[in-house]
Amino acid sequence: MGLSTHVLDTMHGCPAAGMAVSFYATGGAQPELLGRFSLNADGRNPNGPLLDNASLRVGTYRLVFDVKGYFSGRGVPLPEPNFLDQVSLDFGVADTSQHYHVPLLVSPWSYSTYRGS
Predict the structure, then answer these.
(1) β strands within 10-85, DSSP E
(2) Which residue range forms the structural domain that includes residue 105?
(3) CATH number of the domain within which 107 lies
(4) Three-state SS for 5?
(5) Phi-psi region of 55 (alpha: psi -120 to 50; beta: other; left: phi over 0)
(6) What is the distance between the alpha carbons of residues 25 and 28, in angstroms, rounded to a whole number?
(7) What is the tens place of the pLDDT at every residue in 70-113?
(8) How far, in Å, CA of 1 to CA of 52, rounded?
(9) Measured between alpha carbons, how far is 94 from 98 in angstroms, rounded to an integer?
(10) What's the helix, strand, coil split of the chain in %, to 5?
(11) Which residue from 14, 117, 18, 11 is spatially nearest to 70, judged by alpha carbons?
């Protein structure tokens, strides 16, 4: 299955449909942009896994979630500056034969993540 992500909006109790996400490889001198996408109605990448097992490499990666843009777009009144703007998750892949799932549970004021299945 490779690498996947899923975002749930804990303020509204639903998937974070439409949230913008950027995906990077971070093992080099500068982060390398691997892709940008907006989450689908289920809060997932519309194209499936970010990387399949054949493309996944041992190394470090970063997912950047546009939390401020998402909640602003949903009409949530946010202070300026908002408490959370972009949430960056840096993580490592040690075994490419395993599935790495990176979920994000998020509100305008908090977030949590874990290695999912």
Answers:
(1) 14-15, 20-25, 32-38, 59-66
(2) 3-113
(3) 2.60.40.180
(4) strand
(5) alpha
(6) 8
(7) 999 999 999 999 999 999 999 999 999 999 999 999 999 999 99
(8) 6
(9) 9
(10) 5, 45, 50
(11) 18
CB proximity list for 47: less than 8 A, separation 6 or greater: 37
Number of domains in the chain: 1
Encoded tokens for 72: 């602003």
List the structure tokens of 53: 């097992």
Which one-letter amino acid corresponds to residue 18?
Answer: G
Q: What are the pLDDT digits (tens) for 6-32?
A: 999 999 999 999 999 999 999 889 999
Structure tokens at 29: 């001198």
Q: Which two tokens stand for residue 6?
A: 């899923």
Q: What does the alpha-carbon distance between residue 2 and residue 76 come to, in Å, rounded to a whole number? A: 34
Q: Is the pTM of this model over 0.85?
A: yes
